């Protein structure tokens, strides 16, 4: 069990990665086929946890995440949450849970000396539209460039390079470093030399992103202790039961891979 209260009070930095739109079955298949060796070496015994996301597309899922609501296990009984806003007096919170006295997790961490940094990926983090300001505005600082976005075939490399530079710059203080990996978000057909986005091309996109994710995690944890959280914000339908896309309550969209670990 991860004791998030102890982690935050000790000033341990937090890396939170979302693999945008990554389906649970794609993540599992890539792991089983040996296409994600970097992640395989980092994931706990048993690999990815199968979880249900609180949002069916990027905006609501991340708003939930940044306010303390991570994907839940598909079962009636849940383990203690990593963190939550101080609840009403009648509710008991397990001692392992970090309780923050603020309306959002990011503000709560800031009260404990953390600097919150966003390395965006998809355009919800781009500030290119009015709506594209909503998520970045939650952070102390945010970073987005066109080469971080999914049309760029080498987006994960650019994002990880930048995230590592930021981590080194702020090495002297605890961080919440958030990275939204866009490679697994459409368009990803280019990883198979096609203009069509499919289950198979998302599979290839994850295989492309794997060594960069591995490099991010192993570099950060080579000298410091970090809490690492990696999950998808939602999945994507590629013709499942006739459905396509996101923003729909279909199992292909609502079922996501998740893992959390403490590494040093």
TrEMBL record:
Q: Name one Pfam family in it.
A: Sulfatase
Report the residue ranges that make up the Sulfatase N-terminal domain in this protein. Answer: 14-250
Keyword line: Hydrolase
Q: Which GO terms describe its molecular function?
A: hydrolase activity
Coiled-coil stretches: none
Name this protein carries in UniProt: STM4013/SEN3800 family hydrolase
Which source organism does the UniProt entry give?
A: Streptomyces pactum
């Amino acid at each position: 069990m991860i004791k998030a209260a102890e982690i935050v009070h000790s000033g341990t930095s937090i890396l939170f990665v979302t693999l945008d739109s990554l389906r649970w079955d794609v993540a599992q298949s890539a792991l089983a086929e040996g296409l994600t060796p970097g992640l395989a070496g980092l994931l706990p015994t048993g690999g990815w946890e199968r979880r249900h996301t609180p949002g069916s597309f990027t905006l609501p899922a991340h708003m939930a995440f940044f306010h303390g609501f991570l994907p839940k296990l598909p079962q009636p009984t849940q383990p203690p949450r990593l963190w939550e806003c101080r609840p009403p007096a009648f509710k008991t919170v397990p001692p392992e849970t970090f309780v923050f006295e603020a309306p959002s997790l990011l503000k709560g961490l800031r009260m404990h000396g953390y600097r919150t940094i966003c390395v965006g990926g998809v355009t919800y983090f781009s500030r290119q539209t009015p709506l594209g300001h909503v998520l970045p505005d939650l952070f102390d600082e945010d970073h987005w460039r066109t080469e971080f976005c999914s049309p760029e075939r080498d987006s994960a490399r650019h994002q990880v390079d930048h995230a590592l530079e930021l981590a080194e710059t702020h090495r002297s203080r605890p961080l919440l470093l958030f990275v939204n990996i866009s490679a697994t978000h459409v368009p990803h057909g280019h990883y198979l030399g096609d203009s069509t986005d499919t289950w198979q091309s998302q599979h290839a996109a994850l295989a492309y992103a794997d060594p960069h994710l591995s490099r991010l995690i192993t570099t950060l944890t080579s000298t410091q202790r970090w809490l690492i959280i990696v999950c998808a914000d939602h999945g994507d339908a590629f013709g499942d039961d006739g459905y396509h896309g996101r923003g729909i309550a279909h199992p292909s969209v609502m079922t996501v891979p998740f893992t959390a670990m403490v590494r040093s």
